[in-house]
């Protein structure tokens, strides 16, 4: 049962065209019960469908379209479809809202997928460098004041990390979407570095590449279930017993060399703390980590 007074007389195109702002709502005949036409203050004429929701039992009104963009016959067809939904226990407005929400979520998912595809290894590395490793300037959102934030490394270290990642990781994989990099890609990269005899460099690249990926994953720039390919590569290289640390040094200072170093140290450019550490190490023979 519809909750509006309905006349037996059907709507006509002429009657709708004759409507003026302030006119009463016009309703269709019994066959299209619930179809209504209103004329707003601007003269815009709108088709609506008024009915009682089979889901909530409440009176609901849903917009169908504007006249004359939507023809009267088209409005009646839409009402017919909505009546069929109601007959199945479905609220047309609620169903429309659900469809709109599903379309919105699908659009957001597509946009996220496109953003992931466009996010290359170069982008990932640059974000890690500029937001973590290097000094940067940030603006306080409340005051607009700018301030300098020191990076995770000292200036020399910042340059070294940038050189390390760009000379190898970006050079080889920079063009690839970060989400498409596989364990094998990173293993091949590290093996290439090892093959040219740069064992320490290989370890440095892998360490920083792992950190760069971890940062991107933490910021949700990659899919939720995305595994860090650099971590996987590290595990594979460890299983294969591939070393990325320098060979243990065997060179020692002779008594004459030791005397020369101790004599040179006080006037060197090192800081007092560094001089003390070096002097204590030479005197005692302790490991530098223990010192």
UniProtKB/TrEMBL annotation:
The keyword DNA-binding appears for this protein: yes
Keywords: DNA integration, DNA-binding
Domain (Integrase DNA-binding): residue spans on this chain: 11-99
Family, similarity comment: Belongs to the 'phage' integrase family.
GO biological process, one term: DNA integration
Source taxonomy: Bacteria, Pseudomonadati, Pseudomonadota, Gammaproteobacteria, Oceanospirillales
Domain Phage integrase central: from-to ranges: 154-227
Provenance organism: Alcanivorax hongdengensis A-11-3
This protein's name: Prophage integrase
């Amino acid at each position: 049962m519809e909750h509006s007074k309905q006349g037996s007389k059907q709507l006509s195109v002429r009657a709708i065209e004759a409507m003026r702002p302030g006119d009463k709502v016009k309703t269709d005949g019994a066959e299209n019960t619930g179809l209504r036409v209103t004329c707003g203050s601007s003269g815009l004429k709108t088709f609506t469908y008024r009915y009682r929701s089979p889901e909530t039992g409440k009176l609901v009104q849903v917009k169908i379209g504007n006249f004359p963009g939507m023809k009267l016959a088209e409005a009646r067809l839409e009402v017919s479809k909505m009546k069929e939904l109601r007959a199945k226990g479905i609220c047309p407005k609620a169903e429309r809202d659900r469809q709109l929400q599903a379309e919105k979520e699908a659009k957001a998912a597509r946009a996220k997928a496109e953003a992931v595809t466009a996010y290359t290894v170069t982008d990932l590395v640059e974000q890690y460098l500029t937001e973590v490793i290097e000094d940067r300037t940030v603006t306080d959102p409340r005051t607009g004041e700018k301030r300098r934030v020191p990076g995770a490394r000292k200036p020399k270290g910042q340059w070294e990390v940038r050189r390390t990642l760009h000379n190898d990781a970006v050079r080889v994989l920079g063009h690839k979407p970060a989400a498409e990099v596989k364990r094998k890609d990173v293993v091949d990269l590290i093996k290439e570095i090892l093959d040219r005899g740069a064992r320490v460099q290989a370890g440095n690249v892998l360490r920083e590449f792992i950190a760069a990926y971890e940062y991107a994953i933490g910021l949700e720039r990659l899919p939720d279930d995305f595994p860090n390919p650099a971590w996987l590569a590290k595990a594979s290289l460890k299983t294969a017993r591939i070393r990325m640390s320098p060979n243990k040094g065997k060179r020692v200072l002779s008594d004459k060399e030791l005397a020369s170093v101790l004599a040179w140290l006080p006037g060197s450019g090192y800081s007092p703390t560094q001089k003390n550490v070096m002097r204590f190490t030479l005197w005692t023979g302790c490991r530098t980590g223990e010192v």
